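Input record (one chain):
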Amino acid sequence: MKGFVSLLLILQSSFAFGETIDEKLNKYIQNFSLGALSKIEETNPKLTALGKKLFQDKRLSLAGDTSCQTCHSPSFGTAEPIPLSLGTGATSEGRGRRVSGGTILARNTPSIINKGQPGIFRQFWDSRVVWHPRAQHFITPEKGLNGDYPEYFEIVDVLETAVNKSLAAQALFPMISKVEMVGPGYDNLSSKELWDLITSNILEVEEYQHAFEEIYPNEKINIGHIAVAISHFEAITFQRTNTRYDQYLRGNLQALTENEKEGFLVFSEEGRCIRCHFGENLTNQVLHNVVVPPLGPGIDGRGHDRGAYENDPREHLKYRFVVSPLRGIKDTAPYFHNGSMLTLDEVIEHYNQPFNSIDHYLATELNEIFRQTYNGPLLVDRTPYRLFAIKKSVSPIIQRLGLTEKQKQDLKSFLLAL
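The corresponding structure, as predicted from the sequence alone:
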């Protein structure tokens, strides 16, 4: 933390009188490795086509009513335009999705834009799926996939062929979630048994049999092949590498307007965004508690969600979620892990006065808009103890910013250019 603050102070104090805004921004670009993203080139169009079909296929759901695309909608930045996702039993898609006989999940559907980039090694809001970049093995909720000598080595061997290994592993887990895609009636089956059953269902389709045989001749197909195909489609299709921000980084100084450049400077200085959102992917992939207001039902059904701690119960992980990449953010509202903020204006104001935000959050407008989606209002946890617990473990980087209205608007303009 002190190192980041010192670097920012040094950079700001080094700006000579009369220095242009482009020259100022270039120092941040260099010092925080803000490189333009490289496009992931298509290497296996047949695998992409297979992955696309699987991504859209509800056969991956043992309940038969949910596909990957149900929640990761290409029309909404591969996220979902509702605060909290809905599981199996819900109806329709997009803005028309309704809880019906389904379950309200604890978290917002995260975007998968650029999640296939080589530098991304964490998946899910709580980082429960990781491809360890140094140890070169998986860390997941299923022990059979983990470590140097995994029990399910035949699945892991296939996952390791993916464009992005963590993204391939991520695809495995919604399929075996009782509330997301499985539905009732399978409580006695292990993860491996569920994966085998899903694989069997897919391979009953002759078209899939031929496609897998063509891509993987003479191989015994397992759930890893299905996950790799889906992740390959996602990595190739859902990437944004030529935004106006990327064009600016490649040297086109006219790609951003003056207001957007001013916003870029706020992003790097007063807004302090750059301390977490840096590098080519605009994320350091660290887990932080940014005191997001609790919006239910949460993990415990009472609006309470302790983030990474729910999967890895170590005290320092309470209320912490992974720093998200930012490209395409204009298309992925609502925001944060629980969709509690409807607009970028609300997000910016939250970071501007974070403790005021959590103390006075009511979700009145949100519940009015989405009342039919959830057949009633979502719970806002106002329990003083809960709010105190969240604020007590806040990440040290979260402080009141004191941005002016112009700075907030300029920052928003910059974010819209990503």
